[in-house]
Design brief:
Length: about 160
């Protein structure tokens, strides 16, 4: 299945945007980072394994639920990890995922949304409610797999 997604880095998200939204704590570990990616993720209750192709705006994606004990085993097998709080915000008739990274990635906040088509994605802009955002859809350094391996990008390019 294809995933069509836009992503922005923002410096902060106003509290009123997140008011009443309970974050989901996500822990991810990357088993393969090239080519594509193979990751495991949990929210503490459910765990998933996900394969994604390389790409920017459009990527192939496959995901399936796995037992928590399998997540634990695979998570322990790699140091390529990250943790984040994910807020799912409904705004302008779409779901925006606000990721507030934790640990070594603390300070990084991204906003992303999935689209039904490339045309829809290309016409989309970040709502003013999120403040100024730098688009990072096409900047591979902001892919979660790269963040887990390389940490925070030192500067924009």
């Amino acid at each position: 299945m294809s995933e069509i997604e836009r992503k922005w880095r923002v410096s902060q998200v106003l509290g009123r945007v997140l008011r009443g939204v309970t974050p989901q704590r996500l822990t991810q570990a990357y088993l393969v980072t090239s080519p594509g990616e193979l990751r495991v993720r949990t929210d503490g209750t459910t765990a998933w394994i996900t394969a994604k192709s390389d790409g920017s705006l459009v990527r192939e994606e496959w995901e399936d639920e796995i037992p928590l004990w399998v997540f634990d085993q695979l998570h322990a097998s790699t140091t390529r990890r990250l943790e984040k709080l994910r807020y799912r915000v409904e705004l302008n008739e779409r779901i925006w995922e606000v990721d507030v990274y934790q640990g070594q990635l603390a300070g990084l906040i991204t906003v992303e949304t999935e689209c039904a088509s490339e045309m829809e994605a290309l016409a989309l802009s970040l709502p003013d409610e999120f403040g100024y955002g730098e688009e990072v859809t096409y900047d591979h350094r902001y892919k979660n797999k790269c963040l887990a391996v390389d940490g925070l990008p030192s500067s924009t390019s």
